[in-house]
Amino acid sequence: MIEVRQAGACDLVMDPGRPGLGALGVPAGGAADPAAFVAANRLVGNDPAAAGLEIVLAGPVLAFPAGAVVALVGARFDAVRSSGAPVAWNETVVLAPGETLRLGRAIAGARCWLAVRGGVAVAPVLGSRSTFLPGGWGGLAGRALRAGDRLPLGPAAGEIRLLRGRETAAAPGTPLRVIAGPQIAGFDDAGLLAFFGGTFRVDPASDRRGLRLPGPRVRHAQPELPSQGVLPGAIQVPPDGRPIVLGWDGPVTGGYPVIATVVGADLTRLAQLRPGDALRFASVAVETARALAAQDTWQIEALG
């Protein structure tokens, strides 16, 4: 059992999501960095699909009355145990009965993921325990966690192994790599120069549905089109010329031109963008995007 003593800015129950339901209008959703989420589960001996928590910008205070085996991965937060000792990151952590975890603000980046041995055992909806905020379902009553919430845990199996994870991450400040979108031919030279040569910033109104990007205006000859299928990472350009990078809970269809799509290997970087962060884009070939997606970004090894 996990008891929420104090809620963070946005703490959500998450698992790998609901792939394959786009025809029903349901986005895949799930953890914003699937590789980090799976690594967290590996560190506590869970099945990769076990549910955990996605924590954004400022974290909660969580109590573990019966103790727990946990792991925190992703952006580093100010995090301490009941004793005031700092919590190790990217490795297995054993909590005694009655201990608490207090997560403050993110030191850098925006999101971290907490895995707990046994997994968070809320009822699945459409085959997943992930929270879908726009629809108000999944997770715990379809909402972010609140003080007083109690989260059940599933049964743990096998021996506890103390492990450490190591992530291979892109250098800070490097452009997000993209491949050309289906409507790129409709942008003139000025539009392409604004998109690939400009610097954009993450609007505070951004959320899991999409990242709004104030910056240079990117113009298209036909700003509204018949609806087409879209996926997370697709970069739409609405009539105001301000691009929107579709997020994990974004729509499955859209009627704005798609100038480019963020490559799979860089979708994880979207999860760590904070309001006000600057970003740029760089084009790569489809073959390069496939090669990047095939690379393993996490290594797990024994502690000691």
Topology:
Layout (H helix, E strand, L loop, with lengths): L1 E5 L4 E4 L19 H10 L8 E5 L4 E4 L3 E7 L2 E5 L11 E3 L3 E8 L4 E6 L33 E2 L11 E5 L8 E5 L8 H9 L2 E2 L8 E3 L15 E2 L4 E3 L7 E3 L6 E2 L3 E5 L1 H7 L7 E2 L1 E3 L2 H8 L4 E5 L2
Parallel strand pairs: 12-21
Antiparallel strand pairs: 1-4, 1-10, 2-3, 3-9, 4-8, 5-7, 5-9, 6-8, 11-22, 12-19, 13-20, 14-17, 15-18, 16-17, 16-19
Return the structural class.
Answer: mainly beta
Span between termini: 29 Å
How many domains make up the coordinates? 2
Beta-strand share of residues:
25-35%
Q: Determine the fraction of residues in helical runs and give it as a percent range.
A: 10-25%
Going across the major beta sheet, what is the strand order?
14-17-16-19-12-21
> How many separate helices?
4
